[in-house]
Amino acid sequence: MLVVVSGKFQFDEEKSAAAISYLASKRIQGLSKGKICKLIFLADKCHLVRYGRPITGDKICAMKDGPVPSGILNMLNRFLADPADPAVAILSESVSVDRAYIHPHFQSDDFRLRDFLSDTDVEALDATIARFGDKTFSELRAITHEMPAYYKAWNDNRPHDSPAMDFEDFFEEDDDAIEAARQEMLDNLNIRKALTSIASV
Prior knowledge:
Number of strands: 6
Largest sheet: 2 strands, antiparallel
Strand order of the largest sheet: 1-2
Number of domains: 1
Radius of gyration: 17 Å
Order of helices and strands: EEHHEEHHEEHHHH
Shape: globular
Strand content: 5-15%
C-alpha cells in the first residue's frame, strides 16, 4: 500500500521492483538503466495525474539528464553492482541483465510480481510503454527536459545538484491531468502533514 510521509509519498520497493520487472518483461528495445528510470518516471507521472498517486512513490530528482526516480536509480545501481545483494533479491528473482552492451540491458522471461501492482498501475505502465517504449534514451531525455516540473526544479533550486521535483507541478501542461486527482493528492498530503505534526507534539 502506497502512503505519504511528511508531505511526500513513501518509496515502495516492492512496487518499484515489480514495475522494473514488468518493463523488462515487455521486450522493450534498449531497456537500459537510464531508459528504465525515464519510463518509470513517466508512468509515475501518468498515474499521478489520473489517480492522485504515483505507482512507486519515489522521489523524483531534477538531474542533468532530466527527471530521475532516485530510489529506482539506487536499486538498479545496486543490482548491477551485485545481483546477489540481499537488498535487491526481489529483482534478482525476476530480472536478468545482458551485459553485452555498453549500457547493460534488462530483460525478464517470467513476470512474477503482478500481485504488487494494481490494475491502474499496469494501465499506466502500458500507456507509457505504448507512447514512449520505442524512444531511445536520448529522445526520452529531450522529452523530459521540456517538462515544466523539471524546468522549475532545475532552475529554481540550483545550486543543489539534484533538487527534488514537486509532485504538484506534474499536473501543469499535461493534457491527461484530472483536476480531481490533483485535489485528492493535495488532500492526502495535507492530512498526512497534519497527522505528522500532531504525532511530534
